């Protein structure tokens, strides 16, 4: 009793598969049954002259969502400028770092009169005696 | 219209009889019949007969660009070509942001709706069984809508939906092998205007092509209708429109105008709107 395919039919099937795969590389054709891709349709709920204010708000929202997808390159308005951000970040790193520094490292975080962190001095390391 | 259609039909019939496939690019906005095969732009060189054609083939085989083409409603893929399955005009849309290929489809007319995933439709609740509602959407079988598929619905807090209510929702499952399923929330869990449509108003049925025409971004009919009096309209892609205005008479006028505008020329339409605006 023979189970499975014999070697000849297997080879034929493999060849057919390879042929199909290589044919598909030429141009991809995708089938879609939806009209949403084909035509830009407006949102289905509409209200005019203030009959239903919620629907009018929705109309503005949904219809501008479709158009907004085209205008993605607009620069986002910055609330905080870059320089301000850099300044704050600089001071922040020191203050949070202080929290996690051990007693010995507190020397690196000495503050002068204004509360700004002084530039750290050279670390004291063990010097091997020269003999 | 009649002589143009007859000529177009004869050209199409000739190509079907002759067995030569036409290039899709040359047939845009013309009538195509089911059974026609259309060639995509990059395959037109293959049909040039003679020695020059063979040379072209060899040169181009290596440099064949792989363009992704979408075939929309009314078209099927048949090897490398497009096979037309519905009669109507062939349309093409350029690719938007360089995603290659573009979309071809056939602008056909039909009254019977076939559920498609992602479509917003108006359904009528016909039965309430356990955790799901059965919604009639005008297709071959009723769609199912789970009671949890509404905004803010939980097992304790059930939505207030009765048999006979109108629902505006979208399909999440819609293929020929399974029962269609719809929901009244989007992927973020917000309603976005979907759910039970309010009291009163009138629901009527039109052809599917009219819905698409009315929902086109530059549709004059909707703009003119909106200037008449305060009103609310909901369009379902299954050919159903629900309208509501302040009085019953205004609602009926609106329904009649929308039904009739499919077969009117723009002049006739303007006359009617002028008369309505006066009264």
With strands numbered from the N-terminus, the spatial order across the biggest sheet of chain B is 9-10-11-13-12
Tell me how many strands of chain A there are.
Answer: 2
The pLDDT mean of chain A sits at: 77
Number of domains of chain B: 3
Class by SSE composition of chain B: alpha+beta
Helical stretch tally of chain B = 6
Q: Kindly provide the radius of gyration of chain A, computed on alpha-carbon positions and rounded to a whole number of angstroms.
A: 35 Å
- The CATH class assignment of the largest domain in chain B is Mainly Beta
CATH fold description of the largest domain in chain B? OB fold (Dihydrolipoamide Acetyltransferase, E2P)
Describe the structure.
The complex is a heterodimer of chains A (131) and B (279). Chain A has 131 residues and is mainly α. Chain A contains 3 helices and 2 strands. The longest helix of chain A has 19 residues, at 82-100. With 279 residues, chain B is an alpha+beta fold. Chain B has 3 domains: 20-42 and 67-108, OB fold (Dihydrolipoamide Acetyltransferase, E2P) (Beta Barrel), CATH 2.40.50; 119-196, OB fold (Dihydrolipoamide Acetyltransferase, E2P), CATH 2.40.50; 202-278, K Homology domain, type 1 (Ribosomal Protein S8, Chain: A, domain 1), CATH 3.30.1370.10. Chain B has 6 helices and 17 strands. Chain B has helices at 2-18, 51-62, 208-214, 220-226, 248-260, 266-278; strands at residues 22-23, 31-32, 37-39, 68-71, 75-78, 81-84, 88-93, 103-107, 120-129, 132-136, 143-146, 166-173, 181-183, 195-197, 202-205, 231-235, 240-245. Mean pLDDT of chain B is 84; it is low at 45-64. Chain A binds chain B through residues 23, 25-52, 55, 58, 62, 70, and chain B through 40, 42-43, 64, 66-73, 75-77, 79-80, 82, 91, 93, 96-97, 101, 103, 105, 114, 116-120, 168, 192-193, 212, 215-217, 219, 222, 225-227, 229-237, 244-246. Strand 1 (28-31) of chain A pairs parallel with strand 4 of chain B. Chain A: This is M-phase phosphoprotein 6 isoform X3. Chain A: Pfam families: MPP6. Chain A: It comes from Carlito syrichta. Chain A: InterPro entries: MPP6.
